[in-house]
Specification:
Elements lengths: L10 H10 L6 H11 L4 E4 L6 H13 L9 E4 L3 H14 L7 E4 L6 H8 L4 E4 L1 H9 L10 E4 L2 H4 L2 H13 L5 E6 L4 H10 L4 E4 L10 E7 L3 H12 L7 E4 L3 H15 L4 E4 L5 H12 L5 E4 L1 H4 L9 E4 L6 H8 L9 E7 L4 H11 L19 H18 L6 H22 L3 H11 L15
Parallel strand pairs: 1-6, 1-7, 2-4, 2-5, 3-4, 5-6, 8-13, 9-11, 9-12, 10-11, 12-13
Bound molecules: adenosine monophosphate.
Amino acid sequence: MQLFQDFKLNKQLLNAIAEMGYTTPTAIQEKAIPAILGGQDVMGIAQTGTGKTAAYLLPLLRILNYPQGDDPRALILVPTRELSIQVGKTIEDLGKYTGLRHAVVFGGSGAKDQIADIKKGIDILVASPGRFLDLYLEGHINSRKIKHFVMDEAERLMDKSFMNQFHRILEIVPQKRQNLLFSATMSDLVKKISGDFLDFPIEIHITPEVRTAETVSQEYYKVPNMRTKLNLLEHFLAEEEFTKTIIFCKTKVIASNIGKYLERVYGVDEVRIIHGNKTQQTRINAMEAFRNDPIRILVCTDVAARGLDIVDVSHVINFDTPIIYEDYVHRIGRTGRAFKTGKSITFVTPADEYHLKKISRLIKQTIPESIFPEGVRRVPTEYDEKQDMAREMDRQKHLDDPNFKGAFHEKKEAAKILAIKNAKALKDSKTESSNSKRNRSKNPGDSSKFGKARRGK
Ligand code: AMP
């Protein structure tokens, strides 16, 4: 396994990488970073989600090194406003200790602020082709220093007007430069452009993660709430076949709580937790420990798990149904690797059923439901959790139908009236029962499973 430290990146970048929570380079990063650092032209056929942005930004930031002059030395052409913002944000995150400056210019919004950003002096310009040409023709951009030219998501740049713009841009930028082209697909137009554009490029093809690998069996369980999820999780982890299990949670807090809970149940020798707040070294250590016995349970978030390649994972448990649907594919792709078979289990609350449908649509498969096992205790759903789910389900209905006003609001109204009634009843009753109730509330029973007593191994 390669590490970011193996590339000729500097401390400023390595620190930013660690803060971003990247543990290991993705496949495209492994190949593209050394090639770009070596000054070569690169054609990367890779989709979003493969880590392609950092694959070209990291070496570029390294080469540009520190702020110099006022005019851009790297030009990154992008097709959409969203991508331009995203690339700008990644430059900010990865370049935060380099001092390198950038501007993002895109059509469809006013040019005034964008021009002001350029005038401040920049090293990198992220631009849509049309806006780049407009600003160039108006004299706001000096292109003479551009030494690195990137086309990101090139396949989406290829509309009719683009070829024209593209050839005009090629006339504007200096001939001696490094060219990098990234495209999700290898269409005829992309081939043509790369022929016009790239000089003996290194070609990198990253096949998208196999859509829900055939070696992974999938199932889901309907689970009413968080505490019942914990009961179900314990039920599975007690089974022998769960030899190496990764548990995915949606937030760092949940991952941390579940991890600590499992540590109490199974002992610290069997469990590791990785999420964005852990240092890179801690994460690498956790990964190594998981790879080698006796750690058999790894609790993590999606960010922390990107790019991990661990063979022999027997089970992936989606403790939380992923709400970024591509993450489902990434998650379950952690098992069933290298021709081994694996199993993925997803816990689905009533509020997650909507997401499950979307996931099925994405992967073009129906994930079979399994019967909730007998003997696993179903715990009643607490009020706050119920409210959160109702709110989420309203949000989903609103997404599908923007006119939907939401039953939750009605429920909320009813709950408010009930609360007022209860408060009044409480005030009215000056009996002992209210006192004893108050006393009891000073010594509440165990309402949180996270706080439950230790259980040995
Ligand atoms: P991209 O393919 O560039 O759109 O990146 C997809 C996502 O992967 C982004 O959220 C990146 O922050 C993240 N990412 C990129 N490289 C890594 C890495 N080496 N480890 C973990 N996450 C990464």
